[in-house]
Amino acid sequence: MRLLDLLFPERRNSAVIARDRLKIVLAHERASRDAPDFLPALQKDLLDVVGRYVEIRGDMLPVNVGKSGDTSLLEINVEIDGAKVKPVKNGAAAPAAKVTFPARHEHETPAPWVKPG
Amino acid sequence: MKRDGVERVLNELKESFDYIVCDSPAGIEHGAITALYFADSAIITTNPEVSSVRDSDRIIGILASKSRRAEHNMEPVDVHLLLTRYSLERVKKGEMLSVEDVKEILSIPLLGVIPESESVLRASNTGIPVVFDEESPAGRAYVDAVARFLGEQREMRFVQPERRSFFRALLGRA
Q1: CA B100, CA B107: separation in Å to the nearest integer?
Q2: How far apart are alpha carbons B158 and B95 in whole angstroms?
Q3: Most buried one in A13, A38, A77, B90, CB count within 10 A?
Q4: What are A20-74's pLDDT values in tens digits?
């Protein structure tokens, strides 16, 4: 069947493709529709924390809410680039209080519990 | 028209009518959301097409979260699915989403299936509602859908293959 599809791509059942496309699009849209309002703020905080150790961009840390049966799941995937690990002083993870934000964060207000400087 | 204007008109009409049908523009623009805000029931009218089903899903979401009933924690809007421009032949060839597909994706109860029919354009051209065309399968399907909406049990037509006509059988088509 696969071979046939390859040889005659126009023969593929387009209704099945339509159904699959819809399922994917709607799964995304429903997830963002039902998402709690705090997700963007949570993502920003997580980026700040992870960003102290590794260079990371927003699209490398998606935060979603999903469902598995009756259980709501908070799904956080962190993709890191091993080559862009930031140097850590004293061989241990820098404690939160001593952290200075990288330049790109300086104009932003830090989370309220982080002492400035 | 703004929401309070719509409310005023609806309240006036309520004095004289049992049912007020509020047609909504296709898509999910401001007009559609104003039209659905005060709804008690909604008939989600969709084609078996990706873009149409997708918009329907959004509208179902808006009905569930932003309608008057949702905002006031009342019984949710009673939602029905009306599938139009349905071509059984194309469904069988795998060229069109089936009624089962759309029902499964949107998961709302089915009110009716309107077959694709030339009589619809004719009705629109002449300004005579297609339900008055007794020959028209689409007209009959609309009458069935209304009866079901009013609580009657009617079997779904035009979703099963009809008996092969001699001519079609000769051509080898289903």
Answers
A1: 10
A2: 17
A3: B90
A4: 999 999 988 887 777 777 888 898 999 999 888 888 888 888 888 777 777 888 8
A28: contact with B, CB 8 A cutoff: no
pLDDT in tens, B128-153: 999 999 999 999 999 999 999 999 99
The predicted structure's pLDDT at residue A74: 87
Residues with Cβ within 8 Å of residue B89, at least 6 apart in sequence: B173, B174
Of all residues in chain B, what percent are helix, strand and coil, respectively (each to 5)? Answer: 50, 10, 40
> The tokens of A88 are what?
């850590």
**Please, are residues A48 and A111 in contact by the beta-carbon 8 Å criterion?**
yes
Percent of chain B topping pLDDT 70: 92
CB contact under 8 A, A14 and B49: no
- Burial environment of residue A71 by CB neighbours within 10 A (0 to 12, 13 to 18, 19 or more): exposed
Is A16's CB within 8 Å of B94's CB?
Answer: yes
Q: Which residue is closest to A21 within chain B, CA to CA? A: B50
In the numeric block, the tokens 């401001």 are attached to: B30
Q: Are B78 and B42 in contact (CB under 8 A)?
A: yes
pTM, 2 dp: 0.68
Mean pLDDT of chain B, nearest integer: 90
Is residue A111 within 8 Å of A45, Cβ to Cβ? yes
